[in-house]
Amino acid sequence: MRRPNRQAHVFSLSKINIQSFFMAGIAFIVMTFLIIAMLTTADNHSRFSSSALHDWTGQMQSDWFVHLLGAENRYFLDALEDYSTPSLTTAVLELATNMNLEDPRTFLGRELPGFSGFDDTLVVAGQGTDFTNTSIESAPPTEEVLREQTGADNPSEEGEQEERSSTEMADEEPIIHISHAHNREAFHPEVEGKEDLHPEENIVKVGEYFADAFREYDLPVEVSDDDVTGMLDERGWDYSRSYDLNREIVEGAKEEHEELEFFFDLHRDSVGREHTAVTINDEVYARTFFVVGEDHADYEQNLEVATEIHNRMEDKWPGLSRGVLTRGGAGVDGIYNQDLSPGAMLIEFGGVDNTYEEVYRSADALAEVLQEYIYEELEEE
Can you tell me where the transmembrane regions are (predicted)? Predict the structure, then answer.
């Protein structure tokens, strides 16, 4: 009777093991390079950073983290009314789908247009302000409307485009810069029909009036009247890149004027008059709203300034400011060029149904508050 060849069997097993280890090593190297490639080539919103980890874990219910800590220290569980451990199935569902079974908004937010507004953080709510009437950006112009407006802007038979330059005080270096990323946002009572965007009657007029109000307080200011919407069309850029193009304008102004410190991007909100008009001392004002982009490291500085201005306005004109909100994440710009300076703000002046007269009153009021704040900052410097 022949004995089995154990040496051959052992050698065969060893060969299989070696092949398995070799293949596992190759797979590990490939996966490592793939992960590194994803981490280094992703944009700022997608990279695995502390903020990304915060957003990821933020999708989970806080009870889970309390229970994890409570496993080591029972005192943490005293903060919970219900000591039962959350369902593991629920936690996996939340991580995999970003849907919270206890919050119906998470089922609808990515499906219904405009519902993503609930992702905004209403830091300070003015009178009557809640998540149902927060700031809404204007819809991009249709190709037909843009084509008609572009033709109206360039009546020259020779087809030469007149360059629109910035106006400024010639005697002093400006310290305030006013721009309009959505420069064609219009007010319905001031235009024929119900046009949301207009090449001439638009938010730029508010910027020019706002600048004159600052000049009354001897503050030098520069106003950008660049046609951002028209420039986007010339470059073939999508309307969502308005802030990218406006950034070029602001950065150019900073290079030209080193004293610039305060940057105001003026907009017109898209909500109705019932939310954007208020009567104070028998006069109607267009309400303001401060929007802070939270997708940059120092946004809390911008938030602090916006909150301070809101509070000062409430002291003088209660109800004039609709509040302060932070906005970021997918689907929005999330920076609004506010990373260029702690003194940068995005200000919504009124809505589609306000008149110039109402908006100008608000511009006067806000300029009065801002000039006090600006002079205080200049004295500290």
Answer: 21-42
Instruction: Give the span between the Cα atoms of 291 and 336, in whole angstroms.
Output: 9
Side-chain half-sphere exposure of 219, counting CA atoms within 13 A: 26
pTM exceeding 0.90: no
Residue 144 pLDDT greater than 50, yes or no: yes
Distance CA 295, CA 330 (A): 10
* Neighbouring-strand partners of residue 345: 264
Measured distance CA(102)–CA(95) in Å, rounded:
14
164 DSSP assignment = P
Name the residue ranges covered by the structural domains of the chain: 50-108, 143-152+165-380
For residues 325 and 134, give the distance between their C-alpha atoms in angstroms, rounded to a whole number: 8
Q: Give the angle 100-105-106 at the CA atoms, nearest 5°.
A: 40
Render pLDDT for 303-336 as a digit per residue (tens, 0 to 9): 999 999 999 999 999 999 999 999 987 778 899 9
| Alpha carbons 375 and 378: distance in angstroms, whole number | 5
Token look-up 């953080």 returns 121
Letter for the amino acid at 42? Answer: A
Look at residue 60 and tell me whether its pLDDT is greater than 70.
no
Distance CA 21, CA 129 (A): 62
Q: Please say if the pLDDT value at position 106 is more than 50.
A: yes
Cα–Cα distance, 287 to 33 (Å, whole number): 53
Residue with tokens 């490592």: 32
The two most distant CA atoms of the chain are separated, in Å, by: 115
**Could you tell me if 281 and 216 are in contact, meaning their C-beta atoms sit under 8 angstroms apart?**
no
CATH 3.40.630: does it fit domain 143-152+165-380?
yes
